[in-house]
């Protein structure tokens, strides 16, 4: 079960979160986000997978960031087409495509992306792009019958643990944590993350 911590920015906080048991760490390259990373952080994690988060960025911009940030994955939150995702994959970049879910019908959009994405990320609808800090109705995912594994996102916080331990889906691959574990935008509470990740993984793996 993958645990991704997104919205990282400060070097010392990156070092702290790297020790929490997280598997992936996300860096946001979207100027509309309060967690936007303008340049290469002074420290990049060495023991976790690095994910660059983009919104309608160009191929050249993404390739530049992949090289500069030594990215393992890109996460696309805009109106990127299946063809765009396929072109990114063909360059050797692994792709996560985000979808905001309001109703089961929104899952139909994922079908054309199945062959060109490594993971999906299911999130809460909001105005603009990025996180809302709120959860969506996970019951919608009972209608997801695709083969592409997905990460669960949207408003996850320490109090979400019980619900996560009860949630089940054959294609569920992990969770995405962000604002629910912050002391300020882009600054994570490493102690809270460490406690949560330990409890989540211990209980999930022991079920």
From TrEMBL:
Biological or metabolic pathway of the protein: Amino-acid biosynthesis; L-tryptophan biosynthesis; L-tryptophan from chorismate: step 3/5
Superkingdom classification of source: Bacteria
Name of the protein this chain belongs to: N-(5'-phosphoribosyl)anthranilate isomerase
Domain named N-(5'phosphoribosyl) anthranilate isomerase (PRAI): residues: 3-197
TM ranges: none
Keywords, alphabetical: Amino-acid biosynthesis, Aromatic amino acid biosynthesis, Isomerase, Tryptophan biosynthesis
Source organism of the structure: Phocaeicola plebeius
GO molecular function: phosphoribosylanthranilate isomerase activity
HAMAP family for the chain: PRAI
